[in-house]
Design goal:
Elements lengths: L2 H13 L2 H8 L3 H15 L4 E4 L2 E4 L1 H24 L9 E8 H18 L3 E8 L2 H9 L5 E5 L6 E15 L18 E4 L5 H13 L4 E5 L6 H6 L5 E4 H4 L7 E3 L5 E10 L5 H12 L6 E2 L1
Parallel strand pairs: 3-4, 3-5, 7-8
Antiparallel strand pairs: 1-2, 5-11, 6-9, 6-10, 6-11, 6-12
Length: 295
């Protein structure tokens, strides 16, 4: 059993399927599948029930995932313990790369509080159109830290920040129950990212695995225009609940049943944590925002 196998296992759980996990981790799907099959043979148990709609954990798989999270968190804790203590008051700039939608929340909620807590650390927020560009900036050394949806490429260290509920945001005249099932998206006019973009591939995978064929009302990567287009009656979007509820009254916000969630977290290169990254992660833990750490 290897740590990589445990990371693969958690990625499949986080992303809902072998294919989606492989895309997020930047590995080929057959390699990920073979690795998890080897893990199942070693444990002499079936971890997933595989179907055309994705991979569902067996009861044994649920227990193994719980233990895998603890193992990976323990590995990171050991690494942190064995490192020399960092200066109590690190100074400098922390370059954070994130998507446009997550930047809105970070800048409006977490960043002001962190600035008051650590005025000696300047956080520079770079906004990118998609996840691929975030990780490319990190690999080139143009960013120190990434804020994005989990799972993330396996060569990075990760720390989960919070679980976001994803909701359906529709024009006020759309008649649907609340909560709504994913099946209600079938035939519903939707505003989606541009074709062939990384985020659009995530949507298309969700639709394909659930047998959903939405009606495409608009295709654009200008996420800042999505909610205004919903309010204008163009179509509906899938959006983070925390942000969508700010626009209630102009749009209708409905939860999914069962709930649809995405985990948001930080990622940085697999090397000693800088004082600035350590300070931001410690601040998040103190605020009760950080849930799970991955080695």
């Amino acid at each position: 059993m290897t740590l990589q196998q445990l990371r693969y296992l958690i990625a499949v759980v986080e992303h809902g399927s072998m294919t989606a996990a492989a895309q997020a981790l930047f590995v080929v799907q057959p390699a990920l599948s073979r690795s998890l099959q080897a893990l199942e043979r070693e444990l002499k148990t079936e971890l997933f029930v595989r179907s055309g709609r994705g991979a569902v954990l067996t009861p044994e798989g649920v227990r193994v995932v719980h233990l895998a999270r603890r193992v990976l968190a323990g590995v990171q804790a050991i690494e942190e313990t064995m490192r020399p203590d960092e200066p109590a008051a690190p100074e400098g700039t922390l370059r954070l790369a994130t998507t446009q939608s997550l930047a809105i929340e970070f800048i409006s909620t977490l960043l002001p509080a962190f600035n008051r807590h650590r005025p000696d650390i300047h956080v520079s927020v770079g906004q990118f159109d998609n996840r691929d560009l975030l990780f490319a900036a990190l690999r080139r050394g143009e960013a120190d830290l990434v804020l994005a949806d989990l799972p993330m490429p396996g060569e990075l260290r990760m720390s989960a920040l919070r679980v976001h509920e994803v909701v359906l945001v529709s024009p006020l005249d759309v008649r649907l129950p609340d909560p709504v099932t994913l099946g209600a998206l079938d035939g519903l006019p939707l505003i989606l990212p541009a074709p062939d973009s990384p985020r659009r591939r995530d949507f298309d995978l969700l639709f394909t695995t659930r047998g959903i064929r939405p009606q495409i009302a608009m295709e654009t990567d200008e996420r800042g225009a999505w909610l205004s287009c919903v309010a204008a009656g163009v179509g509906s979007v899938l959006w983070y609940a925390d942000m969508a509820h700010r626009f209630e009254g102009a749009v209708a916000v409905r939860s999914f049943a069962p709930p649809l969630t995405r985990t948001i977290g930080f990622a940085w290169p697999r090397k000693p944590m800088t004082p600035q990254i350590r300070a931001l992660c410690a601040f998040c833990r103190a605020k009760g925002m950080e849930e799970t750490e991955y080695a």
